[in-house]
Amino acid sequence: MSHAGFLRDHWDGEQGANERIVVELVRALVAAGEQAAAQPPADAVAHLGEVVGGLSGLEPGDAAVLTYAARLTLAPRTVRAAHLSPLREAGLSDDDVHDVANVIACFNYMNRLADGLGVVQGSANRAWAQQLLGESAWARHQAWGRPEGASRADGA
Amino acid sequence: MPWIHLPADDATPDLERTTRRYGAAGRPVPGIVAVMKPAPKTLRAVLRMNEAVTFGGSRLGRRREELIATAVSCINDCFY
Prior knowledge:
The structure holds 2 protein chains of 2 kinds.
Chain A: H1 2-10, H2 19-38, H3 41-53, H4 62-74, H5 85-89, H6 94-117, H7 126-133, H8 135-145
Helix pairs in contact in A: 1-2, 2-3, 3-4, 4-6, 7-8
Chain B: H1 13-24, H2 31-34, H3 40-53, H4 62-75
């Protein structure tokens, strides 16, 4: 939530807030994760690529980075050399591509730690999380975090 | 609270040194940092990695780092 909040407030630099694009983007990303649980993850990645390619307001290269991040996160065993091509076509150097992969790996590590040990989002981001994902998603997250909590997907 | 027992921020001089930056900034130790307190050596290494890879530490710039962080966390259904 805090990362999406930073994006909302700094989309176009220090003064460039853009809540609309961040809300649309977050909902598309969450939907891709849900789709990947119900169908081949690579299909969800391909669909997400189409969705972000159609979002207005992204910077050049954003869609390529987002699609690569989705593939490396959801379907890492499907990644091939050809999947770097959109990044290069967007102007990223090999050093940039390295850093993209490194940041993706870093946040997957942090996510696994949070999910594996029950780190619950604090109340500071509650209003923003509810705006982005709805009250029910917030309630499911809080329930999941309790020691005998429910699954995040079971609607408890 | 996470699902494992965590030592206090000042349980050892090592932990106190590692976590004092948050108290000095007037805020609690973030949950994702606190959960690493059982392994202070790992905690310090991860904080150094985060400084190198995120918060503007990479060659991508802060905005693109946060874009990736948002993407990964949302796709993983991880609120962090």
